[in-house]
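Regression test attached.
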Amino acid sequence: MSAEAVTAGGADPPLLEVEGLVTRYPIARSLAGTLMRREQLHVHAVEGVSFSVEPGEMLALVGESGCGKTTTAQTVMRMVDSDEGRIRFRGRDISRLSHRQLRPLRREMQIIYQDPYESLDPRYRVRDTVAEPLRIHGIGSSRAERDELVEQALVQAGLRPPELYLDRFPHELSGGQRQRVAIAAAMVLGPQLLLADEPVSMLDVSVRAGILRLLDELRRKGLAIVMITHDLSTAAHFADRIAVMYLGRIVEEGPAKDVVRNPLHPYTKALISVVPKRDPRDSTRPQILTGETPNPVFIPQGCRFHPRCPIAQESCRSVDPELRRPASATDPTHRVACILA
Amino acid sequence: MTAEPVLKVEDLHVWFDIDGGELHAVQGLDLDLRPGERLGLVGESGCGKTTTILALMGLLPPSASVSGRVLLDGEDVLAKGEETVSPHRWRDIAMVFQGAMNAFNPVKTVGSQIVEPMELHGIASGRAARAQAAELLDLVGITGSRGDRYPHEFSGGMRQRAAIAMALACSPKVLLADEPTTALDVMVQAQILELLVRLTDELGLSMVLVTHDLPVVAQVCGRASVMYAGKVAESGPMETLFHRPRHPYTRMLFQATPDLYGDDEVKSIPGVPPRLDRPVPGCAFQPRCDSAFARCVDQEPRLRSVGEAQIAACHLNDVPAAVLP
């Protein structure tokens, strides 16, 4: 490890450490609005998010659409610039690095997307899709060497034997196979961190488990994974830790089992109560919140969840709660942003 | 339950003309829907769920040919094609589509689109129809006055509610819901499912819920039919399907679905469903089945009774338990 990659502390820093991340998107004003100097409004997509991920760990970022989970991933990948906060990768702050400086780091952080029908170039054969990152990063001195790496990546992604897939086009593959090709193209560079944005939500039930188990296998081999999902059952099953997001904030974070079995934030409790269970006998009374997630342009004062919260008190209108360990938590790393927890 | 079924489907077949052949999408399907019942129709994509309910609505494209009987309160609505279906479409049998966004015309107000089927079937017109449309919107949880808004002014959840209001415009007896919550967030999904349950309970409406999401069916429907390759593989009360499935496909579908509290290993189902543009020999699920044996390769299993109100098409049910793998 190079000198700059080590922080002053001595102990190894987490692989990825995000601290107080803020990402806002300005809303286009009309010409008249600009001339009249109307206030510039922003979508507050990410509003102070902190978390860390260790090698071999899977963190699930869970929440409804518009909660900021995808923007969080895109900001961590530096595909979107943050307005505040730090992103440390192996101890090094990468939040202000130039694109040139970022380039070598791209090998170590990869992202896969929801829709393998759109993320693969339809004109590229599997071989070329998976070799593309190698060419970009100038890895492998010969075609033969690159082919070898491509085949290894396909095998690792469960596309065996690789010869069967190398010359196929995306339209000749099933949805599950396409997602495996996308994973192979991400893994061919040997990254340490993989961001997976809803990796199975477009896939058929029958193949979802296979993709999730593949990610699980990669995690066991030491890959750190941040999985973005709206599906709590998937998160409960495959993630080590779960972070629940609401309106740009993490409102609860902890070991997956603790968050699912001992949820402490009223929003998490409600979310968990409405997840349909497989067993028809297993029907707890769902606690359905009315309305939909509010607009992230005008974030409520105080606790952002208070207008929909079933137990909100007067003080919730003014106090913006911090993420902290409540007395009712059984695990020391279980944190909740609720003054009543 | 002894009540006469409100909807009875007998030996339904659907073929699509495709380049150089025919695709046999639905292959002899039987369904019974009793008054006030919620029936799930589940399976992977391409198993024929949506084709089935489009056939019930008479909404298949011209490239499709249909045979069989669809009895709505005893009357065969398929008998003379469009001529016999159209008086019932939206009037007695209505549908909620998967993408509520696409169910509405973007340049007409939501209210005027709810009024349309009422006027078409002569149920109400003019001011009376608009008043009824507002009541329907109230019923599904949208302030009635919002009927003069356009579809794009509604959120996804509200559009799905409005689509339900539109389906209810002519007080149908049967509601067909095709993946009504697939694109929605869990909380909004819960709101819509609660609404569908409340409506069927309060209005005595019968519903067929089409979805690939077994937990949704488990929580909403009393009974379900599991479809595979255009046929019913198993059908029965939801509790029985989960606790005592008699078709490996049903069991494997449940095993492929992670459960919030379940600790059991989640397993994918290997392979893909067979192509339906050629005859499938033996049991269609055999190549993917974890319990297949010699007979499954060349003999097609028949649907037969395997328990109380439970039917399944699997040779394992004919074999003494001792020889099972």
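Expected vs. actual: identical. The mean pLDDT of chain B is 92.
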